[in-house]
Specification:
The structure is a homodimer.
Chain A lengths: L14 H10 L13 E10 H13 L6 E4 L23 E5 L2 E4 L12 E7 L1 H10 L5 H4 L6 E7 L9 E9 L1 H12 L10 E2 L26 E6 L2 H10 L4 E4 L5 E6 L7
Antiparallel strand pairs in A: 1-5, 1-10, 1-11, 2-5, 3-4, 3-10, 6-7, 7-9, 8-9
């Protein structure tokens, strides 16, 4: 990817500006660090025939699938996340799936849009990471400029219709006192995964080797640190991939939907 | 000790009733489980000459020394904790110390009271344990009907005048998800030690063997559990013992001051 606009560009400093730059093609890179303070979301688009079950899946599994926005069938707008938002054009790059196979990675959905598609936007860890860093905590994968390590666990999600499968978690190593602080901070943000689901002993949730994540990059866990595990927005993508719907669309990894909502709006306290 | 009244006696169901039974001698046992819902406190009484430094010590170290009440010099009342409260008579049994040596364990302070004594009442873990159990969490030492295991750590308290020394912590083993929930719950109660100070790896805070507590009883930590450590009200007693004041008084272990304040009043949320 190339980007005519850079992530530090003041023209990308809010959600709308970032979306307009993405829509026009002026920006087409990863969205981490873009429009600081604004909520970014994971995208899942499914045909209406599957949308009811998927909505129920999200409601049954709010930690991995915190639903922050949803469209009407066939409607490309998600007004609760941005008055001007067009889900077909406002993400840098998408992934299009047919019967479980990746069939394209377009930069807009104009060619593949259907009148029965329902868009789901799920909260993302960028929001709580911003809150953790604002408190002075180190986020290891950000320090190392790599992708957060993610693991499939033996924690089952609650099934809804054809949607079922294991929870995926992201891991951030922290000193114990920082881990306690991180639990306090992320508890305030249930709409963006909320508090961790596990802490310490990875084997208790079926993770054999912290050095071999299922997604993302391994990061070192020092002797004076413990691993802290949050429910991860890759869970619904993993669940959708497993059930191989006839058609679905997700965002390209790292290219999230930037919204007009502020992270602080999602704090419950 | 013998008790004419039992802990389940409805006559002991609130703070005032419990204190009156203790004052009259009708009840003289441990106060755990007494007057459920009401705050109990640790007691430290020091001469006025030391009280200023000790107050500063409490303010510098709010997690081990959460001050919930304090008397004027020579005054046996602590009205913020109970209109009728008389610190000389309202605890079942006291410990009197001279130059660091235990010189008596009277059931009232009428014989030893001095006009320069200042009473400090510090929050106690009974309050947050009540909140944890109300949420369905198991407290191991309560299940086993023994005393919570406590450990001296390598975490230094902030010194004030002659008061200094290591923090003492209490330990409760929990499954990781329960530990996360316990952090959330106890965060609401900063006046009774608040959130844990450490979690997992005991060696990081200077604890070599969880099976050998410095105070209280060892409890098993199962393979699917991690130890969770809270700052402990024994810290100020340990610090006072170390500096060997010419005169001091504490409560007899397990015999706390029962107050008129409700645990729920101390929740910050």
């Amino acid at each position: 990817m190339t980007a005519a606009a850079s992530r530090d560009d003041s023209a990308l400093a809010n959600g709308l500006a970032a979306r307009l730059a993405i829509r026009s093609g002026a920006y087409d890179g990863p969205t981490s660090g873009l429009a600081r303070g604004y909520v970014q979301g994971n995208l899942a688009i499914l045909p209406k025939a599957l949308a009811g079950d998927f909505l129920r899946f999200c409601q049954l599994n709010p930690k991995p699938c915190p639903l922050i926005g949803m469209s009407a069938p066939g409607d490309w707008r998600v007004p609760e996340l941005g008055a001007d938002l067009d889900i077909r054009t406002d993400i840098c790059r998408y992934r299009v799936w047919r019967d479980g196979a990746l069939v394209g990675e377009p930069t807009d959905l104009n060619e593949v849009w259907r009148d029965d598609l329902v868009s789901f936007v799920l909260g993302c860890s960028f929001s709580f990471e911003e809150a953790l860093m604002a408190d002075g905590l180190e986020i290891r994968h950000i320090t190392l400029d790599c992708t957060v390590p993610m693991f499939r666990t033996n924690i089952a999600t609650a099934a809804a219709g054809p949607f079922h499968g294991p929870m995926v978690v992201s891991m951030r190593p922290m000193k114990p006192a920082d881990a306690i602080r991180a639990i306090q901070i992320t508890t305030r943000f249930p709409a963006v995964h909320g508090a961790p689901v596990h802490i310490g002993k990875p084997e208790l949730i079926g993770i054999q080797d912290l050095g071999k994540p299922d997604y993302g990059d391994a990061v070192p866990v020092r002797d004076d640190e413990i691993p802290v595990f949050w429910a991860c927005g890759v869970t619904p993508q993993s669940v959708i991939a497993t059930m191989r719907p006839e058609f679905s669309i997700t965002h390209y990894p790292g290219c999230m939907l930037v919204t007009d909502r502020r992270n602080t709006e999602f704090a419950v306290l």
